[in-house]
């Protein structure tokens, strides 16, 4: 429990850590943004394919794996359909005005973080002692650029830098709660861990394919983003071999 709590805190607070540069700068180049997003995509892909999926399959069977992956993807799909997509760089394209419904933006970002926290908690409940740390690390790397983009958007909406930093940090803090829920359920309910691991893999791959890869390839930086993705993939594989 203590390891799961610590890992979830570090992973969640990476959102706030990633937002710290907003105190010193107001914008970021498209190239750097795309490289960061693609690197995070490579990390999460590797974590899913080489860690979560083999662990889930080793503890169960193909049916459990397929069910969990599709369920994780379905949950993210429903969230994507029900919660308005927030274009952090182009607020004029939003389906609602920021002045009257700022809380909806924060809620949307927060809701998208829920499955990530669940992934961390379930991973710590696995029999693989290193899996929780690896997944927490991969989620943390994905949270960092997300935290910066959230804070950048808020600053551009005339919200103070320190307040924007605080709000960005809070959007990630919800992962601590869902991580504890995932860990507790997986620890108490026999046979739930492989379903949870497969669910986490499905949710993470949905985020990679639906959000991170398209976002990193939309501004003419596809080549740099592809190389960055491969570096992220290799980084996570290297960490798996080391630990």
**Mass-distribution shape:** globular
**Share in helix:** over 70%
Which regions are unreliable across 5 or more consecutive residues at pLDDT < 50? 94-102
First-last Cα distance: 20 Å
Q: Which structural class is indicated by helix and strand composition?
A: mainly alpha
Number of helices: 8
Mean pLDDT across all amino acids: 80
Biggest sheet details: none
Share of residues in strands: under 5%
Q: What is the total tally of β strands?
A: 0
Order of helices and strands: HHHHHHHH
- Spatial extent as radius of gyration: 17 Å
Please explain how this structure is put together.
The protein is built from eight helices and no strands. By secondary structure, the chain is mainly α. Helix 1 runs antiparallel to helix 6, helix 2 crosses helix 8 and helix 5 runs antiparallel to helix 6. About 4% of the residues have low confidence. Keywords: Cell membrane, Membrane, Transmembrane, Transmembrane helix, Zinc. It is a multi-pass membrane protein. This is ZIP family metal transporter.
State the gist of this model.
It is found in: Cell membrane. Keywords: Cell membrane, Membrane, Transmembrane, Transmembrane helix, Zinc. This protein has helices at residues 2-19, 30-59, 62-82, 102-124, 131-156, 161-188, 192-216, 222-242.
Sequence-ordered SSE layout with sheet pairings:
Elements lengths: L1 H18 L10 H30 L2 H21 L19 H23 L6 H26 L4 H28 L3 H25 L5 H21 L1
Helix pairs in contact: 1-4, 1-5, 1-6, 2-5, 2-7, 2-8, 3-7, 4-5, 4-6, 4-7, 5-6
Question: Which short descriptors sum up this protein?
Answer:
mainly alpha; 243 residues; 79% helix
